[in-house]
Design a protein that fits this description.
This protein has 17 helices and 13 strands. By secondary structure, it is an alpha/beta fold.
């Protein structure tokens, strides 16, 4: 089938509804039943265009190429993301293609020698949010070029989403509006949208409060909503699954561990694996582990009850500030994915996530606190015997640790509340005396 005849559309996730909408429509939830939407692809058309082997070869040829926009980890899979968008409308900073690091020594120390970290923080704005934002902003850019009266793109954020939105909108020349919970994000996260020229609103509420406000603002069609309830974001983030399999020579890991707050990420992870299976590039599914901070754990509490009910909570203050969310908008999508992927939900206390970060850092990494939540969950599942040395495990590192340098400094200063800094490594203060220095070195260097 000719490329121009491929098609993708929004579709209601409610199986009893399945209403369809065009991608150019300004719509975030179903107009008929108020359920969330997802982007659905005409996979029959995609299958008729290429065999599984031909798709594999195409993706390999484009991998990190200089041919715009296909060198991007997302746009190298353009036909599986936004097949009908004009390349001239794509707003890309060559996001994705992030390292899949084989962490042999660290894995052996944990008891899982086949351990990998997917370094999604090695991206333009330092988090995996770039993967979804390139898709959303590209689609908005295309809509504006075709005459849509969109004046700005808006989001509520705990930090990383705002950084990604502000950067991609700045590249496209589209105004952006960012709503942040005052005093609940790191300074590095705050300065990113400020630097990229966003209209930044610091609201005296938490993320869930910011989310309520931005949903009201976006009822005006000139302010386009960029949060993860907009399923265009999920389309970009699903590329993580495809990249992992590609980087493993098209083999599937046994477990994928990912931290979750608003839960669009775990939804995207499942969607990527689903498409790989449907298109015939893989045959098996990994088990997905969703890790939550103990102080923001509504899905964990639902998991313990077999998902029979889900109750939003008032999220407590956590070091993993980007997932400090008590009422995640993508919860139903996430539960569906976890059920399909024999999923597990685990939680991590503040002490556990901080220690897991410090432990990983001692093996050469510089992990964000959200990755610490995932690593702490991994350690718990190893201790329970769920994950063992025979398993190939990928942990999604969602952001760069440099965004959370205050957290790192306070850990090593033993200044984090309710955290026992067992691996604190503060600098030693000495006079410039060689004998004193050598005396200290003889004690420390064994």
């Amino acid at each position: 089938m000719a490329a121009q005849n491929r098609k993708a559309w929004f579709q209601c996730v409610n199986e009893a509804c399945k209403a369809r909408y065009e991608l150019d429509e300004i719509v975030y939830e179903c107009n008929k039943c108020s359920s969330l939407l997802e982007v659905v692809h005409d996979t029959a058309a995609l299958k008729s265009e290429h065999s599984p082997g031909a798709w594999l070869k195409l993706f390999e040829r484009r991998w990190k190429s200089t041919e715009y926009p296909y060198g991007s980890g997302i746009w190298g899979k353009k036909e599986w993301i936004l097949p009908d968008i004009d390349n001239e409308h794509i707003v890309s900073l060559y996001e994705g293609d992030s390292n899949l690091c084989f962490v042999k020594r660290y894995g052996e120390a944990l008891g899982v020698p086949n351990l990998y970290l997917k370094m999604c923080g090695n991206s333009h704005t330092g988090s995996f949010k770039d993967l979804g934002m390139t898709v959303l902003v590209s689609q908005v850019n295309s809509m504006i070029k075709k005459g849509a009266k969109i004046k700005a793109v808006a989001c509520a954020s705990t930090g990383d989403t705002s950084a990604a939105l502000s950067a991609y909108c700045a590249v496209a020349g589209i105004p952006s509006i960012v709503l942040l919970p005052k005093g609940k994000i790191s300074l590095a996260q705050l300065v990113q949208p400020i630097s990229n020229g966003s209209i930044v609103l610091s609201l005296e509420t938490d993320f869930d409060g910011c989310m309520k406000v931005v949903q009201q603002i976006s009822k005006r069609p000139e302010f386009y909503l960029a949060n993860s309830m907009n399923s265009l974001r999920v389309e970009g983030q699903k590329s993580i699954s495809i990249e992992i399999v590609q980087q493993m020579d098209w083999e599937v890991p046994d477990f994928v561990v990912i931290p979750g707050g608003n839960l669009g990420n775990v939804s995207a992870l499942g969607k990527g694996f689903d498409m790989l299976i449907e298109m015939g590039l893989i045959k098996k599914k990994p088990r997905i582990v969703l890790a939550q901070a103990e102080k923001a754990n509504p899905l964990y509490q639902s998991y313990l009850k077999g998902y029979k009910e889900f109750e939003p909570i008032q999220a407590g203050k956590t070091l993993a500030s980007a997932i400090q969310i008590g009422n995640p908008v993508s919860v139903n999508k996430a539960i569906k994915v976890l059920k399909s992927y024999d999923g597990i939900v685990e939680q991590a206390s503040e002490n556990e996530l901080a220690h897991a970060c410090a432990e990983a850092d001692s093996f050469g990494f510089f992990t964000c606190p959200h990755t610490g939540v995932a690593l702490a969950a991994l350690k718990k599942l190893i201790a329970k015997g769920v994950i063992g040395k025979q398993h190939k495990v990928v942990v999604i590192s969602t952001a760069h640790g440099l965004k959370f340098s205050d957290f790192k400094v306070k850990y090593h200063e033993k200044a984090l509340e309710n955290v026992e800094s067992l691996l604190a490594n503060p600098p030693a203060t000495l006079p410039p005396d060689v004998d004193a220095i050598l005396e200290l070195l003889d004690k420390k260097v064994k």
